[in-house]
Design a protein that fits this description.
Elements (H helix, E strand, L loop, with lengths): L1 H5 L12 H13 L4 E5 L2 H12 L5 E5 L3 H4 L4 H6 L2 E5 L14 E2 L1 E2 L2 E2 L2 H13 L5 E4 L2 H8 L12 E5 L10 E5 L1 H13 L8 H4 L3
Parallel strand pairs: 2-3, 4-7, 7-8
Antiparallel strand pairs: 1-9, 5-6, 8-9
The structure holds pyridoxal-5'-phosphate.
Length: about 210
Amino acid sequence: MLKVMSEAECLNDPALDDYETLRFEERLAKDFNKEAAIFFLTSSMSNLAAVLLHTRPGSEVILASSAHTVERECASMARIAGVQTRQIFTESGLFTPQQGKLSNGTYRGQVWDLNDLRQIKKIAEENKVAVHIDGARIYNALETYGLQPKDISDCYDTMTMCFTKGLCCPVGGAILGTREHIKKLKSIRKSLGGGIMHTSILSTGI
Ligand SMILES: Cc1ncc(COP(=O)(O)O)c(C=O)c1O
């Protein structure tokens, strides 16, 4: 891994993404059967970027009270995106389609029921609400379900994933979505200070 990373081709241009990273994003989107993907340094940053993408200041985000975004991301949703959370209190950290519409991929080792996720997406669609999955540990969930990444593409509009968790990579995460989402996320990522140069050094290691 270190050898490939040390030989990565870097563009030295702050306005352009490295080719290796673009190829990596394309491969990822194809694996998950989504139109496009965008590389992020951390899942915390990509979760916040997704909130900025789907909301406006004053919007409400429906999620589990134990979501990583609530417990461990230093209130970034409130501080930076200016949104209010509507938290669903559940002992397990999972909630049913009847209880809400925005969700996490896994919670402390527990995996969402796929039918619940599909139904949450359907209810959200009917109410014109976007579904973002914090799928930091999505590869673990897929392993549990015995599913391929593309099998869950209909469960969400956008999804965060993290390469430092189940895949044990040194750094990195991503968001998947439509081309339109990813176009907007490029400028959101830049505004959060996440538009760094030389990402091919990182993306080739994943
Ligand atoms: C569900 C979930 N979301 C987000 C994160 C944040 O990931 P990062 O450390 O890349 O910001 C984690 C980290 O443990 C996580 O478990």
